Amino acid sequence: MTTLADPEPGGRPGDLRRVPALTAGLASRGVHGIVLSYVDTAGVGRVKTIPTARLEAAVAWGVGMSPVFDTFLADDSVVTTDVLGSPDGDLRLYPDLDHLVPLAGQPGWAWAPVDRITQEGERHPGCARTFLRRTVTDAADRHGIDFKAAVEIEWALGLGSAPADEFVPAASGPAYGAVRQVELSDYTADLLAAFAAQGVDVDQIHPEYAPGQFEVSVGALDPVAAADRSVLARQTIRAVAQRHGLRVSFAPAYLPEGVGNGGHLHLSCWRDGVNLHSGGEGRYGMTAEAEAFVAGVLAHLPGLTAVTAPSPASYLRLQPSQWAGVFTAWGRETREAAVRIVTGTTGRHDRDANMEVKPVDLAANPYLALGCVIAAGLDGVTAARTLPGEITGDPARYGPEEAAALGVRRLPRSLPEAVEQFRADPVLRAALGPVLADAVSAVRLGEAAAVEGLGPVQVAAAYRWVY
Length: 467
Fold this sequence. Notes:
By secondary structure, this protein is an alpha+beta fold. The protein has helices spanning 13-28, 55-61, 128-143, 178-183, 185-197, 223-243, 288-308, 314-317, 349-352, 366-382, 400-405, 415-423, 426-450, 456-463, and strands at 33-39, 45-51, 63-65, 91-95, 101-102, 109-118, 146-151, 153-159, 202-207, 213-218, 246-249, 265-271, 274-275, 330-332, 339-342, 354-357. Strands 1, 2, 3, 4, 5 and 6 form a 6-stranded mixed sheet that branches.
């Protein structure tokens, strides 16, 4: 992957040499504009767009965008901190050409993730993509560990003809039902074609549990590319849906009740091409390092929730006995556990074994979520943490003594409670650095204040079409 290592004003000569051929190729495919994309602290996708002919200038000098978006809330109001939220200053958005792709779902457009760089050529400390890249690099340098990651994407399809603020399911039929698949087969076929044209390999796509809900699982990549892919996939899902007269909600709770949309993270640790979650002497074939990594994630879950479940609507979804993983518990193929150990099918353990982190939704900035989960796991490796007892079934059934013996505790029930746990977690705050850690706290508390006094119906409506 091309990265902006030690960027300087004037761009990267290697990238600049690539631009004429890229521009010509885009023009030959009828691409007139390029979407420059990143995700803010609140989990909202933000963009600037440029004509294709301006790609060379964007690569050389970046495209301006205010740093104030680091403290935007989902409703576009702004909170301020000691260092963020001011109308002063400017940043430059630099496109990553290795991930620039024509958008099959939006003819005439291409898409590229960006790194945010100061006007002096330094990496902006609030850039979530830079944070994730730094975390991955540190893991390789300090521990010799690389990662493969993927983000599951769940979304609800509503009728575009419904009143603007309402959700009317675009398909009927039961969960995982053939009825729903048939009713929206033209849409999903076009979606698969768009993914294929964009180089997004799909493992499976199917109707999910909730009304009008679908899920797609995509192939694993390195964490930065996996986060990029998550953003690109959602751009594509929405664009193809619009061409079919449908509307998409990625919100954690698009209705006030029910299971809502998750964005589970799958992650595995590798060294020299060997999967540390397979072939070891630990539980389910994990190596000692893989077990310690899982234990680190489990230990930091209460504070992680402020990053992985960052919306007031997240806490409508995070309910016991709904497969959301709301207790600090782990187990093999246990979908009520917050951390699910996936061993894979016999004959594929060495390739497929991984861990799934479940209390995650698509309001989360995927770069922040993956980076913080990795930081938590690496803390477990450094401290040689050990896993508590494994759970089976639903941890909600445990009495106080049994829960305590297994280390099972309820995760935060509200966003302010999650922020309190995050602020009490020095490992997560140190990993993010003072600027990003400050932004996470301020934005989360701002979101909580914005819906104070509202009931579940109003909270679901407030975030239904945001993410």
